[in-house]
Structure formats: C-alpha cells, structure tokens
Specification:
heterodimer; A: 211 residues; alpha+beta; five-stranded mixed β-sheet; B: 285 residues; mainly alpha; 16 helices
C-alpha cells in the first residue's frame, strides 16, 4: 500500500508506534494492519484492519468520544507445558482476558468511558475442515467475557467456514467485513498456527508483555 | 507471450498428463475421417471412463429422458464433442494430483472450479447460442494455471497471496500475481491449454477469464466464464455482495446479452442447490 504523498499518518499513541500503517485510497484514510496477537487503539479518524481465520477480533470504542480500537487473538490450545487438561483451561482463558483487557484499558486510559463502550465481534471461522473447532471456542470465550463485563455487542459476524477481512473505524464505528474465499485458508491458518506456537510457549503471568 | 510462462508450463509437462482416453477422443473428434463408432470404440477401451461416462450421462445432472446403457448410445445421444468434454471433466481432478501444493487444498480448489463450471453452464443456457457443456468444462479448468504456479513457484505465489491479505482495498489475486511474477494464473492456464492442444474455446476461456475483452474467437464464452468465476465465489461465501468478489467487467454482461441482479441471485442460488450432487459426480465424493 503506497503512502499518501501529501500527508503522514496521525501520531500513534505511545506503545502503538510499531503497528504498520498505510494510506488507504478507498476509505481516504490511514489504516493500521494488525497481525495475530497485536492490538491498536487510536484517537484519530483512521482505520484498523486485519484478516481472521479462527481468531477473534473485538472492535471496541467509546461511542460518545470516538476513541477505540481492535484486538486480534485466540485462546492457546493448552495452558502451556502442562497441557490443557489440568490447569490449561484457566490459563487459556487468562490469555483471552489479557487480550480483551489490554484493549479496553488502553481505551479507558486515553479518555474513553466504560459506560459508553460498544463492542463488535468478528471471526472464529472454521477454516480447516478436519481440525477441532477452535473458532467456536474463541467465540464462546468472547461472549462469556463480554457478558461478565456487562458490555454490549452491537454487531457481530462470527463462526461459519470462511476467513474474513475486517476494516474498522473507531471514530465512527463503521465496519466492513469481507468474507474471503477458501483459496486464502491455508495462508491464514499458517499465520495463526505460527502465532499459536508463540503464545503456547509463553505462559501468562504478572507483568509479562504479551503483545 | 511472456517467455517465462511457456517455460513454466513446459516444466510441468511430465508431472501432469491428460488421460490417454481424452487424447484419443480429442484426436478423433478433431479428425474429419473418424466416425461415431470410432469414438465409441475409443471410449470402450477404457473401462473406468466407460463407467463414469454412463454414470454421468444417466444422472439427473443431464436429464436425458431414456436410460443410456451402452457406449454407442451414449455417444449418439450426448454427441461426440460432449463426450470429449466429459472425458476431460471426469478425469481432470485426478490428473492434476501430480501437481501438489501447500497453498490450497485440492478439495477447496476443485470445489471452486466446480462452482464456476455450474454457474457457467447456467449462464450459457440463459444466454443462448452458447455451448453450455463446453463452458462447463472451461469453468472446471479455468484456474489450472494456479496449480502450476503454486507447485512451481510456491514462495512467490505465497507472496502474492500475502499481498492480497495485506491490502484492504480489494487487490485481487491475479493483480497481485502480476505485481509479483509479471504474469497471472489465467495466462499460465491459457498457455497450458495451448501446449496441450485443447480446443480453442477452452484455451480462450481459461486464458481470458480475468480479461474477457481480450478473447477474439470465443468472446461470449470467455465472458460467461469471467462472470461465472465471480458468481462461484458468491456461492462459496454465501453472499450476494459485489464487494466480496472480484469485479465483473460490465462489457462481459453486454457480450452475453444478460444483466442484472436477478440473474446473479437466481444463478447463485441454483448453483448452491446443485453443488453437492455435482461433487459426487465429478470429484468422486
């Protein structure tokens, strides 16, 4: 994607400088490209986009102040070396909590109000036919989390068998979900498996920076 | 012709071969001296193809009123050029098993091809003056260049697919391939069809399915496969949103004298209704 010759992207919030951004002609705005495990929060009128297989993206914003962002995560299959039969389930959930809390905390830290938050949820597709339905597990986690936290889902497109590309504008809440053809399944699955390996090697505890 | 394309295609000649039965039938159909009996004899020499031909000919997919129980009857009822199409259609998925790749599963690849074939056949019937069975075969074969690229140039093919995923503005796979490789899978498939001496209709439909305006000999059929390709993706993704699929050239609609969302919607729905049966017949599921 070519940068617009006339302008530079709006200043990134501290901690998000490493996220790749580029000019987007269609939307006439800059947009940030999220990879699995990353998240991004902005105060500006810019987009955030990502491609999802069985991973989940929560798009969250303060609908009054227009501050918001997106994450991109999945639960690890096991809770680290112990395997997910023993302490695994809680460890996996802990990882999901981290992903959601990082996004929400950064929105609040930058002026968002908890009572104004709206959530849109995408992904969790079953893109590899004979694998266990990890997408479903991610969706169930996200629904649980949102309910427990008393947040509101205003739109979602989850499950089914295809990957998705999601483009989100936190300022306005506008979102575009494009279903992707199965030609892309393997490329996306490979990316997610690589990401899964990194989170399974890294137990979640205390102050470890995951993202 | 980009010299890289010809070279690439020559590189797979030993890996993927057309079945002998197709090659014999093809020669006989092209030859003015051969009779229907010659063609029936060529078919009968291949027992497994004979079984498949009779099975497909008697399926509801073709809807012939009488039962077709012998090869000569099949050839006379179905017609020689249609027997040639069937020989190619029923063998094509297995003949490409010699070109494995890690970028797309064969199942997903052929399902898309079959969706396209079904959509092309339906469009041809509505458009009239088009050989519905020939464009069915063309639809089945339209992306074969992709298998060549994925097998021979996996790293660069992956780079092209990654470009598509990194672009939020609808960059298509063939555009990305042109950026990375300097050519696209339609051109590669067209060259493969040319080197295999497939009928010119197939060569043009495969080679021009992203640029139907470039077709000179069979512009209507190329337009149909171009449109069918987009409708195939709609059927696969269960969507009628134009933004979800690669754009359809308005001139293609003009070329076949059809238009409008009604045609799209009814074709997509009919294709979705036909896919399971067709998978059994053509992909041996």
């Amino acid at each position: 994607m070519a940068l617009s010759p006339t302008s530079r992207p709006p200043l990134a919030l501290p901690g998000f400088e490493h996220i790749k951004r580029g000019w987007n002609d269609t939307y006439e705005a800059f947009s940030a490209r999220l990879m699995p495990g990353e998240y991004y929060v902005t105060l500006h009128d810019e987009g955030v986009y990502t491609t999802l297989g069985s991973c989940i993206s929560a798009c969250i914003r303060d609908r009054v102040r227009g501050i918001g962002g997106m994450n991109h995560f999945m639960l690890p299959a096991s809770g680290g070396k112990d395997g997910w039969k023993s302490s695994g389930l809680s460890a996996a959930t802990r990882y999901g909590n981290f992903a959601m809390e990082h996004l929400i905390n950064d929105i609040l830290k930058n002026g968002g109000k908890r009572e104004n938050l709206e959530v849109k949820l995408f992904g969790g597709g079953r893109i590899i036919a004979n694998m266990t339905d990890v997408g479903m597990r991610n969706i169930a986690f996200a629904h649980d989390y949102i309910e427990t936290e008393g947040l509101q889902v205003t739109a979602e497109d989850v499950g089914d068998v295809f990957p998705r590309m999601v483009v989100y504008f936190p300022k306005t809440g506008r979102v575009r979900v494009k279903r992707l053809r199965s030609l892309h399944n393997n490329t996306i699955a490979e990316q997610e498996i690589r990401y899964l390996t990194t989170i399974e090697d890294k137990p979640v505890s205390g102050d470890i920076e995951l993202f | 012709m980009n010299p890289n394309i010809a070279e690439l295609v020559q590189g797979v000649q030993g890996l993927v071969t057309l079945p002998d039965v197709f090659i014999r039938i093809n020669q006989l159909v092209e030859s003015p001296d051969s009779s229907m009996n010659d063609i029936a004899a060529a078919v009968a020499r291949d027992p497994s193809f004979t079984v498949r031909l009779l099975r497909v000919a008697n399926s509801p997919f073709y809807g012939f009123s009488s039962s077709i129980d012998t090869v000569p009857k099949a050839v006379s009822v179905i017609g020689t050029s249609q027997v040639r199409n069937l020989a190619l259609s029923t063998a094509i998925a297995s003949s490409f098993a010699g070109l494995p790749n890690s970028l797309v599963s064969m199942e997903n690849f052929w399902r898309h091809s079959l969706y396209c074939a079904l959509a092309a056949r339906l469009l041809a019937r509505q458009a009239h003056k088009c050989d519905a069975e020939a464009v069915f075969t063309a639809g089945l074969l339209h992306d074969i260049g992709e298998l060549v690229i994925f097998n021979r140039l996996p790293e660069r093919a992956k780079e092209a697919l990654q470009l598509v995923l990194d672009d939020a503005e609808g960059l298509t796979v063939h555009q990305a391939e042109r950026q990375v490789l300097g050519f696209d899978h339609a051109q590669v498939g067209g060259e493969l069809a040319r080197q295999w001496k497939l009928p010119s209709l197939l060569e043009e439909c495969i080679g021009c399915h992203h640029n139907p305006g470039e077709a000179t000999r069979h512009p209507r059929e190329a337009a149909i496969v171009h449109i069918a390709n987009a409708l195939a993706v709609m059927a696969e993704l269960d969507t009628l949103a134009h933004e979800d699929v690669s754009p359809i050239d308005p001139l293609a609609w003009e070329a076949i004298g059809l238009q409008g969302d009604d045609v799209i919607e009814s074709t997509v729905h009919e294709v979705q209704a036909e896919i399971a049966e067709a998978e059994k017949l053509f992909l041996g599921k």
